[in-house]
Structure formats: C-alpha cells, structure tokens
Design a protein that fits this description.
five-stranded antiparallel sheet, five-stranded mixed sheet, 22% strand
Length: 259
C-alpha cells in the first residue's frame, strides 16, 4: 500500500467538547454514515458523560451500542442478532457488522487498530478490532468475507484505520514479526528488536481481500506518540484506559453510491 506519511494522521486529532476525537474523510464519501474515534478527555475541558453524549447525533445513543468482549480473534458477529437477543456485550468477538440504521457499533483499543468498513451502496457497515494477533488470525479477511456474503463487493468498500500504534513505537519479538508476514515491513529497532507496521500489515490484507487502494484512508496518528491525547498500552501499561471507535448508519437515510 502506498506510504502516505505519518503527519497525515496526527493532523486528524482535534478537541470536541473537551474530548480528543478523530474523523476520517474517506468515510464521508458515504452519505449518512456516522463515524467517530474518541481518545482522552482534556482535563478541565470536558463535563463528564454529558459532553461525551453530545458527540453523538440523535437518535444514536452510546449507552445502547453493541459492545463486544474482544479476545484478539477473528470472529465476526451480526449486530442485529445480538441486539435482538439482548446479548450486546456478552459475546466474545472482535468485529461486528450491520445493515440496520441506528444500530451503533463500538470497539475499544489502546494501541490496536480499529478498522472501519463501509459499503456506500448496501447499506452495510462493519467495525473490527485488530491487534497483531487479530491480523494473524484473519479478522480483516473474515470481516470483508462476511460483507461480501451479504452482497457487498469489496471494490465498493471504503476503509479507514483509526489511531493505533505506529512503526515508530511498535517493537516486537522476531516471532511476532515473522507471524505478521505480509505488509508488516519489519525494520531494526534501537534495542535490536524489530519494529513492525500494523497499518501497512492491515492495508496489505485489505488489498488482498479485494479493496481498492484509493478507497482506503491514510495513516492515522500513533497512539504511543500522542499518549497525552490517546490511550496507549505501550506508554501507560496497567494504568491505561481505552480509546473507543464508533460506527453506524444514520436512521431515516439512504446511503449514496460513494465517490
């Protein structure tokens, strides 16, 4: 995948209602899709839950979102069936998808990649949590396959990857670099251990699954570099909180054909 440079992601972070957020212009090519990434609150700038709730347009309500027990695997679940059974948050999975307007998807991260997928013609949206284990397990390929099975051509899909740890900071063992394989671009680190590129590894998998490069968004901000604004396990260890990625089809709307 073409290297787009790390500065492109850093500029995407902004403060809204006292919270660090990111939005992804590539997903704006789809009409009436709500997407959001939320990092840390800025001390003294946010008024707790009320300000957080205000980031979501009505009738979307974050408290009614489909939540998963993320396990670094490749299971993809239908959010409609979870919501109907009242099991949102009770199922182990790392991705969910839906064609139901108003059903809000969520994944939580603290260096792993949140991967947003949108079919502008479906309408169908999917949201995946992908760390190195999830990438190796095939969570991206499985999510695209589920969307394809529902009638979404991969060449139609739009994809964005939210803030996550960059190759500047992601030091791993040789065995992890080897397992990641495709796209990981291992390079020597300062302590003799390789640094790998999860963004490129994810991008390579999206391309292999049939997506078009021009429909994949640019490199996001590095969570470890921006640890004052984003949660990063590598920086904060056991004290770390979680970033949150959100995605939904807005009610009473029909998606356009994409541009």
């Amino acid at each position: 995948m073409t290297e787009r440079g790390e500065e492109a992601g850093a500029g995407a972070l902004r403060i809204e209602r006292g919270w660090t957020v990111a939005r992804f212009p590539i997903l704006d090519r789809a009409d009436r899709v709500f997407h959001l990434f939320i990092g840390k609150t800025i001390e003294g700038k946010a008024d707790g839950a009320a300000e957080l709730d205000a980031l979501f347009p009505p009738p979307l309500a974050r408290r009614r979102a489909v939540r998963l027990r993320q396990v670094h695997g490749a299971r993809v679940v239908d959010a409609r069936s979870l919501a109907a059974r009242g099991e949102a948050g009770a199922v182990e999975a790392d991705a969910s998808l839906t064609d139901v307007p108003g059903l809000l998807l969520r994944v939580r991260t603290a260096d792993c990649l949140p991967v947003y997928l949108v079919d502008p013609e479906g309408p169908v949206v999917a949201l995946a949590h992908a760390g190195w284990r999830g990438l190796v397990a095939g969570v991206i390929e499985e999510t695209v396959a589920r969307m394809r099975a529902g009638g979404s051509a991969p060449t139609r899909l739009l994809a964005a990857i939210g803030p996550s740890i960059g190759p500047c900071c992601y030091e791993v063992g040789e065995e992890v670099a080897e397992k990641l394989g495709i796209g990981a671009r291992p390079r020597p680190g300062g302590r003799g251990r390789p640094h790998v590129d999860l963004f490129e590894a994810a991008g390579a998998r999206l391309l292999a699954a049939g997506l078009l490069e021009e429909r994949i968004g640019p490199r996001p901000a590095c969570t470890a570099c921006a640890a004052d604004r984003l949660h990063s396990y590598r920086r904060e260890k056991e004290r770390v909180g979680r970033n949150e990625a959100w995605l939904a089809i807005l009610p009473q709307a029909k998606l356009g054909s994409g541009r």
